[in-house]
Amino acid sequence: MKNMLKNTRYQYPLSLLMLIAVITLGSCDRSRNDKGYEYFPDMAHSKAFKTYTENPAMPNGKTMQTPVEGTIPVDMVPHRYYEYDTLVDRPGRELISPIALNQKTLDEGKYLYDIYCNQCHGELGDGKGKLHTSGKYTVPPRSLTDPTVMEQNSGQIYHTISHGFGVMGQHASLIRPEDRWKIVAYVEKMIQKK
Asked: Do 163 and 82 meet the contact criterion of CB atoms below 8 Å apart?
């Protein structure tokens, strides 16, 4: 009898421990796709509509809406000049680089120049990039060391990168404003040696 009491004394804690272990292991989800049970799950996980699908909550029935006229995305500073301003020096007079000129800026400018500009203007900025020298692009890009380009100031170069000039396309949608200024700094200090 004493032996039986001794066994039952350990049976309850051991049974409780095993029950907790079974519940814990049984509640683990190996696929990570099941959210489990939640109280009001629709408040935590709302139904998402894909970009080009119908959406009954919108007045026109479309999920993707055009931005409200006159608004701009967060952290974007709009470029207030137009393509025709390239022919005048207004952007050159009014646009001033907001970034500090240091070695880090020049290194980042070179990196960005190699991505966006090198294939046309060439490594030395002489207009002999791989697109032209390979024969795939027959119009020779302008040399950045040409005297007319050398006369341009930072704002004019920035504006040309933003809106393009001649056969050069605009890059405002491809390159962030701060990165355009880094390219300008690299072109002026390392290629044009101003």
From this structure: yes
Asked if 192 and 125 touch (Cβ cutoff 8 Å), the reply is yes
Render pLDDT for 102-143 as a digit per residue (tens, 0 to 9): 999 999 999 999 999 999 999 999 999 999 899 888 888 999
pLDDT > 90? residue 38: no
Q: What is the pLDDT of residue 115?
A: 96
Rama region for 193: left / alpha / beta (φ>0; ψ in -120 to 50; rest) = left
| Domains of the chain, first to last | 84-191 (1.10.760.10)
Residue 150 one-letter amino acid? M
Distance CA 177, CA 181 (A): 6
CB under 8 Å to 54, separation ≥6 — which residues? 61, 62, 63
pLDDT for the residue numbered 1:
46
3-state secondary structure labels for all residues of the chain: CHHHHHHHHHHHHHHHHHHHHHHHHHHCCCCCCCCCCCCCHHHHCCCCCCCCCECCCCCCCECCCCCCCCCCCCCCCCCCCCHHHHHCCHHHHHCCCCCCCCHHHHHHHHHHHHHHCHHHHCCCCCCCCHHHHCCCCCCCCCCCCCHHHHCCCHHHHHHHHHHCECCECCCCCCCCHHHHHHHHHHHHHHHCCC
pTM above 0.85, yes or no: no
